[in-house]
Amino acid sequence: MSIPSRIGRYVVRRRIGAGGFATVWLAYDEQLDSPVAVKVLADNWTEDSHVRQRFLEEGRYLRRVESPHVVTVYDAGALDDGRPYLVMTYADQGTLADRLEIEGLTTRQALEVVRQVALGLQALHDRGILHRDVKPANVLFRTADRDIRAMVGDLGLGKALDMSSRLTMVAGTPSFVAPEQAQAEPLDARADQYSLGVLTYVLLAGRPPYTHADLTAAASPGPPPPLSTPERPVPAEAEAVVARALARDREDRFGSVAEYAAALAAAYGDEAGDPGQIAEPWLPLDPELTQPGVRPTASPAAAGGTTEPVPPPRRRRRGVAAALAVLALAAGAVAGLGLGLGLRDDEVEVTDDTGSLTARVPDDWDRAVAADGWVPPNVEERTYPALSVGTAAAWTDPASAAEGVFVGLFPGESLPSLLPQHAECDDHDDPVTESSGDPSTTVVHTGCPGGVTVERVVQVAANRLLWVQVRSADRGTANRVLDSVDTHGL
Question: What is the pTM of this model?
Answer without folding.
Answer: 0.59
